[in-house]
Specification:
heterotrimer, A mainly alpha, B mainly alpha, C mainly alpha, A: two-stranded antiparallel sheet, 20 helices, 2 strands, 2% strand, globular, B: mainly alpha, 5 helices, 0% strand
Chain lengths: 501, 145, 498
Amino acid sequence: MSVNIFAYNIPFISIFLMMLAAIITPILPNRKRIPEKLSCAVVFVNVILSAYLIYVLTNSGGSLTFNFAMGNFPAPWGNELRAGPLEAILSFAFCVSMLLSLMGNSDSTAEDIPEKRRVIFCVLVNLLTASLLALTYTNDIFTAYVFIEINTIAACAIVAVKESPESIRAALRYMIMSSVGSGLLLIAICLLYDLTGHLSMQNMNLVIKNLIANREYIMPLTVALALATIGLAIKSALYPFASWLPDAHGNSTNVSSAILSGLVLKGHIFLLIKIFVRVFGLEAIHDLRMDNIIFALGIIAMIMGSVNALSQVNVKRMIAWSSVAQVGYIFLGIGLNTNAGIAAACLHIIVHATVKPMLYAAVSGLSSAAGHSKSLHALMGTFYVNRWAGLGLIAGAFSMMGIPAFAGFASKLSLMLASFDSPVMIFSLAALVTSSVLNALYYVPAVIVVLTHDKTKPKVHMNVSMIYKISMGIFIALTIYLGLFCVTLLRLLTRGVIVLG
Amino acid sequence: MFAKLVVNHYEAAAVIIFGIGLSNLLLQRNLIKKIIGLNIMNTSVYLFLAAKGYISGRAAPLLIQDAAGNWINDASVYVNPVPSGLVLTGIVVSLSVTAFALALTLRLYESYATLNIDEALLKMTREQEALEENLLQESDEDVLL
Amino acid sequence: MASIASNFLVLMSVLFPIIAGFALFSRPIFEDRHVYVGFMTFISAGIIFLAAFCAESNLIVLCRVTQDLSIAFRMDAPARAFSCLVAFVWVLVTLYSFEYLRRRPPVDRFYAFFLSTFGILVGVACAGNLLTLYLFYELLTFMTLPLVMHSQQREAIRATVKYLLYSLIGAALALGGFFFFHVYGVSMEFTPGGFLDIAKISSENSREMILTVIFLTLLGFGAKAGLVPLHSWLPTAHPVAPTPASAVLSGLITKAGVIAMFRVVYYVAGADFLRGTWVQTALLYIALLTIFTGSMMAFIEKHLKKRIAWSSVSQVSYVVFAMMLLTPDGIRGAVLQIAAHAVSKSCLFLSAGVVIYFALMGANYHYADQLRGIGKELPVTMTCFALASVSLIGLPISGGFTAKWYMASGALELGSVGIFGVVILMISALLTAGYLLPIVTDAFFPGEDYDYTIVVPFHLPMNMRIALLLLGASAILTGVFAGNIIDFVDANMIPLLY
C-alpha cells in the first residue's frame, strides 16, 4: 500500500460521514437553519477530504489507485471500494458542486420549502450525496445497484419536497422512469453475474475478456450490456428516454433542479463509464457494437435537446432541456470509445456539474427578483436588480455556447480533439458546431431579455444575501478557471481513465 | 434453441415475468397498477437469482450437521449463498421503492382526486392554461419575444 | 520603450474600453454620462494610438489554456493600422452620438456596449492567434446585439434575431475550421505565411480537405463582412440600429470580418498555399457576386438607411475581392478600400441620421425621394454626404478612387477572372453613382418648381458638425495621402505575400 492509512480510509469515511449526517439531522434542533448548516459543513469536509485524496494519489509515486476492503474482508467475500484519480476528482467535483448548489440556492430553499420539511430535505440531500459518493467509489456492481435505488428515492423525494401538485406529478413520473431504468439495470447485473460468477468489477472483467476471446456467450453479453446501457441511459436522461427530465427539473425547487441536473445525472453516467471501462473494457464494447449506438444517441440528444429548448418559455424548463443536450455531449465522448474520449466526457461531466447548478442558481436569483415568475419575459431587466445572478447567467450562457475562456469551450475542444482520430470525426464535428449554434439561439435571447430595461415595471430593490454573492462568485471563478486551465485536469483525467480499465 | 429454453426454464419464466412487469409499469395508466407492475418486475428478478443460486441436491446455505452431529464446513454441500443475499437486499430495496411510490401516489390522489396519470396531467394543464390566461390579461402591452 | 510597459499598453488598449464600458452598469460614476463616456473614449483612443505607434510587436500572452492554446495579442502591422482607423472613427462617432442619443434612451446601456465594442474591435485587430480571434469575434457579435435592438421595437428584435442567427452560423463554421487548424497546424499562433503543417497535410493527402475547411472558415468569417451567402442580415440589422451604431456597424464592424478573413488567408493558410487554388477563384467570384448584388439592391432600394446598408454589402466585398487577388496591388487596394470605406460609410450614415431625425421634427424622412431640397436646410450635412459619396463611387483624388485603381490593376494581372472582375467593378461604380448622386443633386438642386419659402434653416449642433466635417474631409484625404498608406503597406504587408 503506497498511500497513508488516513488517505486509504477516505473513500469510506466520506460516504460514512454523509450517512451519519443523514441519521443525525432529524435529532438536531430545527431552528436557525441548523440542519442545512450541518449538511453544508459535512459536504465541505468531504470537499477537503477528496482534495486531500487527489493530492495523495497524484503524489504517491507508483500506484495511482488502491482498493479499500470494507472490514478487511478481501474481494469475493467483502465489499470493496476503489479509489483512483478519476474517482477522487469526480467526487471532489460532485462535493464542490453540491456545496455551491446548497449555498447558492439557500434563499430560494427558504422560500420554497416550509421550515418543518427542511429537516427531511436535508436528510435527503445527505443521503443523495452519500449515494453519489458510493456510486463513484464502489467496486462492486451490486452495491452500485443498491445505491442507485437509494439515489432514486432521494432524488424523487427532493423533487416532491416542494409539495405543489405538479412537482408531485413530476416526481411520480421520474420515479416510474427511474424504476424502469433500475429494473433493467438489475436484470442486466443478474445476467452478468450469471455469466461471470462475480460481482466485483475487475473479476468480472477477467471473465468477460476470456468469454469474448473464446467467442462464447456473445449474445447474452450483448443483451446484458444493452440492458445496462438502456437502464442507465434512462436514468441519465439520454434523449429518447429523457421525457421525464424537463418535468422533474422544471417543476422542483431550484436547489433540487441544480442537484438533479448537476449531480444525479452524472452519478449514473459515471457508473455507465465504469461498466464500460472497468467491467467490459473498451475493446469488448467495440466488439459488442455498443459504442456506435451510444455515439449516435449522443449526437441525436445534442441536437434534439437544444431544439426542444428553443420552444420553451419557462426558463427552468429551457435549462432542463439544455441538460438533455449536455448529456448528449457526454455520451458522444463515451461513444468515441477511446481513453481520450472518455476523459473528455469526464471533463464535460465536471464542466456541466459546475455550470448547470450555476445557471439554476442564477435563474433562482433572477426569478425571485421578478416576483417568482419563471416565464422568460417576466425576467426582463432583472439583471439590474440582482447583478450577481445576471453575471452568473451570462457566464453560464457563454460557457454553454462554447465561447473561449469559459468552461464549455474547454470540454468542447477536448471532445473535438478526442474525436479527430476516429472515423466518425466529421459527425462529431458537425454535431458540436450545430449544437453550439443551437445553444446560443436560446441562451442569447435569455441574456438579452435579462439585460433589457423594462420601463413599465416599477424599480425593485432587492437585498442579495452575502452567501449568494459568495457562491455565485465561486461559480463564475470556477467556470473561467475550467475554461482557461483545464489542461492539467484533462491530463489527470486521462491517466485516471487509463488506470480505471 | 427450444432445448435450451427447457433446460433454463426458470430463467425463461423469469424473463417473461420481467417483461410482463415492465410492460405493466410502462403501459398502465393507473398508478396502483403501475406499482404492481414494478413489483412483478422485481419479483421476477428474485426468481432469476434464486434459480441461478440453486444447485440441485444441495442444502440451503445454513450450517447443517451430519449423522454424527458434526457441523459440515464443506462448501460443496450447500447451494450458492450469494444470490440469496442479493435477493434479500433486492426485497428490501423494492419494498422501500414501493412504499415511496405509494406515498407519492397518495399525494397525487389528494391533489387531483384521480389515480390515472393522464387525467392528472389533463387537470394540471387546464389549471395552467387558466393561470396563463390570467397572466396574459394582466400584461396586454407589447412584450419582448 | 521598455517591453513590460509596451505589453501593458497593448493589453490596456483592448481591456480599458471594455472595463470602462461595463463600469457604466455599476453605480453611477458621473452624474453626466456624456462627460464620462467622452472622457473614457478619448482616453481609450489615446491609449490605442500610443500602442499603435509605440508598442513593440512581440506576442503578449495573457493566459495559457493548453500548451499550444492561449489568449494572446500581437500589435503587428495590420493590427496597428486597423486600431488607428478604429480609434479615429470611434472618437468622431461618439462625438456625434451625444446629441443623437438624447432622443434615443436608454443612454447607459447603449454606451456600455458601445464602449466595450470599441475594445473588442481592437482585440479582433491585434489577436495573436486563432483562439483569441475567435473569442473576440464571438464577443463582438454579442456586444453589438444590444446596439442593434436598441429601440426594442418588434422590427429591431426581428433584425437582432436574424443577425444573431447569421453570425452564429458564421462563427460555427469558423469554429469547425478552428478545430481542424488546431490539428493540422504547427502552432496556433498567427505566422506570416501560414502555420499549417504542410508536411503532415501532404503525407496524409488531405490537401483538398484543408482547402475545403479554409473555404468554409472564410465563408463563416465572411458573415460579418456581409459576404454572400451569409449577407442578408446586414441590410436588415444595420438600418434599425441607432445611427451612431449603424455607422460603426457598417464602417468598422463589417471590417472585423474582413480582418478575420485576412488573418486566415495570410497568417493561417498562407498566400502561397491558396494561390491558384479553387478556393481563391471561388472566393473571387463570390466577392464579385456580392459586389454586384449589393450595388443592384442599393440601386433598387428606396429606404435611405437600407440603401446605405446595401451599399456596405457591396463595398466591403471590394475589400474581399482585392484581398483574395493575392497580389501586391490587391493588398494595397484592400487596405486603401478599408480606410476609405470606413470613413465614408460612417460619414454617410451620420449624415443620413441628421437628415432623418433632425431636419424636421416629426416629419421623418426615411425615403430617398423625400430629400428634395434638403441641401438648403442642411448645407453642411449634405456637403459631407456628397464628399462621402464621391469617395464611394470612386471619383478621382478621393480615397475610393485610389483603392479601386490599385484593385483594378491588381485584378488585370490575374487573367480572365481579373478582367471579369474589372468589368463588374465598373458596373458597380456606375450603379453606386446611380444610387448616391441623385440624392445629392436633388438635395442641392431641387428644380424650378421647388418652393423655397418653406426652407427652415436648421442649426446643426457643434459636436455633430465637427464629426461630420472631419469624416467627410478624411474621405477625400485618404485619397490625397494614399501615397503614405501605400508606403506603409509596401513596407509591412507585401512581404506576407511570398
